[in-house]
Specification:
There is one protein chain. With about 475 residues, the chain is mainly α. The chain has one domain. Helix content is about 80%, strand content about 0%. It is built from 13 helices and no strands. The longest helix has about 80 residues.
């Protein structure tokens, strides 16, 4: 496609802080759209009663694990593509975007089959009982059939972000969020002649909305960037491309599964120490908490093109400058979020329920978990930089090792010692400890090779960057 439009922005020169800000702002709006998407489901399902809200809570770990697999592949594709762009290698960029999509389709077949065959034993293990299990099965039967709409788009969106384009992924997220807001009440409660489907309607609305986003993503990649290309020299080229993606993608998926394993533990422990009310509080609280995480996730997303392209161009000084700036930002951001949570937790909780006990549980969730936000951002941002630089081994150490050796033990210890609030306190303390570990790892492994670092103001000369067809 020969579009006469601007080249992707050059993040290998200029102010690192300004690049982070410029790439973060549109991503914040996109994340806000997805948060509205999730909260819309929670809000309307909460109107079906506590059992329905708790049933949705039981689905979160599985949905989030699936999302982790999807985002792992997306991260692998984005990391490879960003470094290729820094080197000016358009062929690798095109292969990465296309082959990442094909890999996601193969993954869908596995997840759908396994998921449909294991619903009852899996959700029973997570704590669903005779009341909530039928509701869980209603929701997940539809969700598993439409899971392709969840797994494919992140690869395409990550490819665009890796080039520094945050606006088109924002459009994709807006399409999903707006359509879901419209469809949720129609399908859940049966408006405009549509049959009332209850919690199954929430699942169907979600699948349709995500499918619309998938079509939008593929359209941008093909018609605007010309990055979907199915012509191969031989089959080995496809497998080599998958190997590059999975080098970062598999550790990335494991890293993203680790927090969801933790979430499953929290859900199970909540059911043990606080019953259905605690599970519902965790479900609602985690969705509300996602507002506090929006800017942090957006900054993490912006780090992929900034770190990847500069690492590919051997601008290691700029990568290290980014690391230092983000460590300082994490403390300021965490303090502001906690101060806002103190007065707002109660009023926000009452939006979702009038149950006094449930409101109290949600309040305590927001107050305590927000305390760990500094550490959460420290290890998430460090992980994004390490992945973008092609160093997934250290990301595994921080996240998988930290989850199994720090986060889960402290969460369980808090739960057994002090119940629901202790569980949350253990989680927050673990995040702070792990954030400190991430700072040490990042300082040692994000400085590149000292002899190749260009002095400030003297960028290293690299091959001219080639731009994908019709890029902007």
């Amino acid at each position: 496609m020969n579009g006469n439009v601007r080249n992707p922005p050059d993040v290998t020169n200029g102010s690192v802080g300004r690049h982070i800000f410029r790439l973060t702002v549109p991503t914040v709006w996109g994340m806000f759209g997805i948060t509205i998407f999730n909260l819309t489901d929670t809000f309307f399902v909460s109107r079906l009663g506590t059992d329905a809200l708790a049933a949705m809570g039981f689905t979160f770990p599985v949905i989030m694990v699936t999302g982790a697999v999807s985002m792992g592949m997306a991260l692998g594709a984005g990391s490879v593509l960003a470094r290729a762009m820094g080197r000016g290698d358009h062929h690798t960029m095109s292969r990465t975007a296309t082959d990442g999509i094909l890999l996601s389709i193969l993954t869908v077949l596995v997840i759908s089959t396994v998921g449909l065959l294991t619903m009852e034993p899996l959700f029973t293990l997570l704590g669903a009982d005779a009341t909530t299990l039928p509701l869980v099965k209603e929701y997940m039967s539809i969700w598993y059939i439409g899971v392709v709409a969840f797994i494919m788009p992140p690869v395409g969106d990550s490819s665009m972000r890796a080039m520094g384009d945050m606006k088109r992924p924002l459009i994709v997220m807006a399409v999903c969020a707006i359509l879901n807001v419209i469809l949720d009440p129609i399908m859940i409660f049966g408006l405009f002649g549509f049959p009332a489907m209850g919690i199954a309607g929430a699942s169907l609305a979600t699948v349709i909305s995500r499918a619309a986003g998938m079509i939008t993503t593929l359209s941008f990649l093909h018609f605007h960037y010309g990055l979907i290309e199915f012509r191969y020299k031989n089959v080995r080229e496809l497998f080599e491309s998958w190997k590059r993606i999975l080098h970062v993608g598999i550790p990335g998926a494991v890293v993203r599964v680790a927090p969801q394993i933790l979430r499953a533990v929290v859900t199970r422990m909540a059911a043990t120490v606080g019953g259905i009310t605690a599970v519902a509080a965790v479900a609602a609280g985690s969705r509300i908490e996602s507002f506090a995480l929006i800017v942090g996730m957006a900054i993490g997303t912006a780090l992929v093109p900034i770190t990847g392209q500069n690492w590919g161009a051997e601008r290691f000084d700029r990568v290290d400058r980014t690391r230092v700036l983000l460590n300082r930002t994490a403390f300021v951001y965490g303090a502001v979020a906690f101060l806002l949570a103190i007065p707002l937790a109660g009023p926000v909780a009452r939006i979702f329920t009038a149950d006094v006990e449930l409101v109290s549980h949600i309040q305590w969730y927001l107050w305590i978990v927000t305390l760990g936000l500094v550490g959460l951002n420290l290890y998430n941002w460090t992980s994004e930089q390490l992945n973008a630089a092609g160093k997934p081994r250290w990301v595994l150490l921080i996240n998988l090792g930290g989850t199994t050796c720090i986060l889960i033990p402290l969460t369980l210890l808090g739960a057994f010692a002090f119940g629901y609030r202790g569980m949350l306190a253990g989680l927050a303390a673990g995040q702070l400890v792990l954030g400190g570990v991430a700072c040490v790892v990042g300082r040692r492994h994000l400085r590149g090779v000292a002899s190749t670092i260009a002095p400030a103001g003297h960028p290293i000369t690299t091959a001219p960057r080639q731009t994908p067809r019709g890029s902007s």
